[in-house]
Specification:
The structure holds two protein chains of two kinds. By secondary structure, chain A is mainly alpha-helical. Chain A folds into two domains: 167 residues, no CATH class; 86 residues, no CATH class. Chain A is 68% helix and 5% strand. Chain A is built from eleven helices and two strands; from the N terminus they run H-H-H-H-H-E-E-H-H-H-H-H-H. In chain A, helix 3 runs parallel beside helix 6 and helix 5 packs antiparallel against helix 6. The longest helix of chain A has 31 residues. Chain B is mainly alpha-helical. The chains are: A mainly alpha, B mainly alpha. The interface between A and B is large, with 81 and 63 residues.
Amino acid sequence: MNLLKDITIGQYVPGNSIIHRMDPRVKIALVFILMIQLFITESWVSLGSYFALLLLVTLLSGISPGYILKGLRPIIFLVLITLIFNFFFSKGDAIWQQRIFSITISITQQGVQSGLRMAARLILLVYSTSLLTLTTSPIQLTDAIENILTPFKVIGIPAHELAMMMSIALRFIPVLIEETDKIFKAQKSRGARFGRGNIIQKAKSLLPILVPLFVHAFKHAEDLAVAMESRCYRGGERRTRLKQLRVTGLDCWATLLCGLVLVGAAWWDFYGKL
Amino acid sequence: MDKDKRRLIAEAGVFLALSIVLEYVTLFIPRLPQGGKIISLGMIPLLIFAILRGGIPGMMMGFAMGLLFYFLDPFFLHPLQYFLDYPLAFGLVGAAGFVAQKNKEWTYYLAILTGLFLRFLAHFASGVVFFKIYLPEGFKNIYLYSAAYNAAFIIPTAIVCILLVPYMVKRIFSLGNEYR
């Protein structure tokens, strides 16, 4: 039994494609804007153009479709619920009816249409957000979040502190995974049994792992605080970075392309319906 | 920036890493249909941090945890659902720190229940938002379904946290003053 069997934390697939090289802030902003469009639109043409755009991005990023499909797996259940409930419970003109005992079950035309549209919307949403996390490393996303949240400092959101916590966490995840594994093996070799019995026994069996793990965590934090102090860390003000986030020509082209798709789809929604 | 604040950031960061590691421990934890785990072990470091360091640092750590969890395991259905399920749900668990008082053990239990109940409320609201948007109108049981789905992982999580967290806090206190 392996405690950390198949552990994969995060979805990021490293690469050097043009999608990987884009500024993470621009990526977040574009995904967000396209997402709003996805919620407003009702037409298949704009859903289709959105899908085409995502396919193009996937192709450019060099991410294999397997990763995308893996990202879609958790929503299969929700897509099914959405389809079934919309098909059977929407009001409208019935296209299929069946009497089972005393209940009439019917599928309506409106139900099928709205069900398929909702399912497509769900899939496209998850597709676009997983493209973002597949092509942007968590540390880049953290930097971008710090940058995006900075204006909210006015209303008391500590953007820098939040981002700092997240960067520290990302740095320490591999260290702690290794320690958890070590502690787990050490306790097992002393005869500890894990994962047996009812929920209470299972929970209690975690204590021989948790207690040393927390002691380690406190020690790491203490060392880190001393290191931060000795390097004169004073929070976000006047702090410089080795890797600055920069908007380049690439980001401008990407924005232009997304803008064209957005405007084209919106134009079709308003004027193009035949 | 004073020494305590630096230490708080460092501790919150390391505890956050611990939360993520524990959340991904696959040992004997079954999964729910939408991919959520039935016991959220990541709550243990967050609750301990909130109880030891208070409500505001706890909520900050929770908020950061929500953002980070999203990067690692994204599940986005609607902007409101995202906010409720990630930053708010985890941030509210940190509010347990407002309830807990040091050296009064019974307040730890209350704090754990409060924090997890608030998280439950956030996920419950997010479930209702999902159904309102994606399902046809006039569907009645959405509140019940959302409550049942979320209770299915909050209750086992609460049992495990009630069993482990107060004990762990006492053990940490027994380590000496520097950890308090």
